[in-house]
Design goal:
Length: 250
């Protein structure tokens, strides 16, 4: 079972109307500020860097193209066909592959694993935008894709991002221009408890191999010109020995 049709239609509408220019989408930051930082945390835990890399929720492919410069085969996957069309258009040299897939669907994930074999996975900011019922199936699919040898790097908004986003949405002048379309299309970031993500991972049969906190950079600025950053959590997951951070939170 995949995501709801309402959810898919919301994303199709968003990407169909999103600005074409670079950085026109709230989370579409330059790779040096996003995937580049995450990759530095992810690479030390890759036991098989030659595996295919799957960018789940690739959007218009900005981060996917960055990954394609560093790994032999990179596949960007997104629920919205409109996003995949943009990603392909922005990659005329064909550095990466792009497909429209609902990876929360078990059979889709199984078919992709049958094609690719074990894969490494990068996913940024997807779980907190999922409807609650879709979160466990999505993480289960990540477990399917990684198999025995792959690793996944998951970056999600922390609980502390909730008050920041609510403050931006309730500003007297309305939400920032790049954030307003997210709310307008009904895909406003949801709130996932910090402790819920490790539970989803454990339920999928994976373990947290490394974890930490860092700000997630957006493309939007505040009235004073400073870039908006949102608190986030990053985790590297796979099959292996569990990690516990100094605070005791896995």
């Amino acid at each position: 079972m995949g995501v709801t049709s309402r959810y898919q239609e919301a994303w199709e509408g968003f990407w169909s109307e999103a600005p074409q220019e670079e950085g026109g989408v709230f989370w579409d930051s330059e790779p040096v500020l996003t995937a580049g930082i995450h990759l530095a945390l992810f690479e030390p835990h890759l036991t098989a860097p030659d595996l295919p890399m799957v960018d789940l929720g690739c959007g218009n492919g900005t981060q996917t193209r960055f990954l394609a410069d560093r790994f032999p085969r990179v596949l960007g996957v997104d629920l919205a066909a409109a996003a995949v069309d943009r990603a392909r258009h922005a990659d005329p040299a064909g550095q990466a592959e792009f497909r429209q897939l609902d990876v929360a669907d078990k059979s889709t994930a199984e078919q992709l694993h049958a094609e690719l074999g074990d894969a490494n996975v990068y996913m940024r900011g997807v779980l907190h935008q999922c409807e609650p019922a879709d979160r466990q199936p999505l993480v289960d699919s990540i477990a399917t894709l990684t198999g025995e040898r792959g690793r996944a790097c998951l970056v999600e908004l922390a609980e502390a991002a909730g008050p920041v986003l609510r403050g931006l949405a309730q500003d007297a002048g309305g939400p920032p221009p790049k954030l307003a379309p997210v709310f307008a299309h009904g895909i406003a970031p949801g709130e996932v408890a910090d402790a819920a993500v490790p539970e989803l991972i454990r339920s999928a049969g994976l373990t947290v191999l490394a974890a930490g906190s860092l700000p997630l950079t957006t493309t939007e600025c505040r009235a004073d010109g400073t870039r908006i950053e949102l608190p986030s959590k990053w985790l590297v997951v796979g099959r292996g020995q569990a990690f516990t951070d100094p605070s005791g939170t896995p």
